[in-house]
Amino acid sequence: MLSGDIPPNQTIYLKNLNEKVKKEELKRSLYALFSQYGRILDVVALKTPRLRGQAWIAFSEVPAASNAVRQMQNFPFYDKPMRIQYAKTKSDCIAKAEGSFVPREKKKKQDEKAERKRRAEDAPPSAVPNGTRAENGATTAPFRQGNTSAQEAAAPNNILFIENLPHETTSMMLELLFQQYPGFREVRMIEAKPGIAFVEFEDDVQSSMAMQALQGFKITPQNPMAITFAKK
Predict the structure, then answer these.
(1) 34 alpha-carbon distance from chain centroid
(2) Residues of the chain above pLDDT 70, percent
């Protein structure tokens, strides 16, 4: 492992990233890929000449960072194997971001909390964020709402239908998520219909494994993925 003598901490340092990827796409893709290991507080990626090809991800807990270092070491990210280690200190993230890390983190958490509250008040029960309570006090599972009939109508097959994706989702982001599972073939997105995608596997057993693993996975805090078998 590349971490050497650096003690485990909440922030991980990534290098050997593809320098051709735009900064915002890079940050979104890193968030989508690494949020499966735990809650992410911040993703820092700068495009200055000295810092290209590098990024920092701050998790809320050390075990999440440790798991990410172990599982994602040398993962082919935009065709280049990632090199991952713990950040030397939290100040790495502070210095590279050219600002104070803690206030940024607190502000982001406050903004997310305010946004969740606003959405919970404005949205109908089926759109309430995962784990919140509807007016009747029952816990909701929004990524399953409205999909029961689709699951009943479509028999298990090798193609998955993905809904509730944020509109900025790219096919590359989905490929990075689904190619971790055996039998992955391709992602198909429909340009005229943002928010949905089809993911093809070699057989229905492999597609079922991916569905179970990623059902409800949040590409953003407000967008848990809804996965069903595609109708044929």
Answers:
(1) 6
(2) 72
Whats the size of the chain, residue-wise?
A: 232
Give the N- to C-terminal CA distance of the chain in Å, as an integer: 45
Alpha-carbon distances, residue 201 vs 54, 112, 205, 206, 208 (angstroms): 32, 35, 9, 6, 9
Contact (Cβ atoms closer than 8 angstroms) between residue 56 and residue 34: no
**CA 212 to chain CA mean position, Å:** 16
**pLDDT of the residue at 68:** 93
State the Cα–Cα distance between residues 142 and 162, nearest whole angstrom. 14
Q: What percent of the chain has pLDDT over 90?
A: 30
Beta strands in the chain (DSSP E): 11-15, 40-44, 55-59, 76-77, 80-81, 83-86, 159-163, 184-189, 197-201, 226-229
What 3-state class would DSSP assign to 192? coil
pTM summary value: 0.49
What's phi and psi for 199, nearest 5 deg? -125, 125
The set of residues, in sequence order, having a beta carbon less than 8 Å from that of 16 and lying 6+ positions away, is 53, 80, 81, 82, 83
Q: Which two tokens stand for residue 98?
A: 């050219």
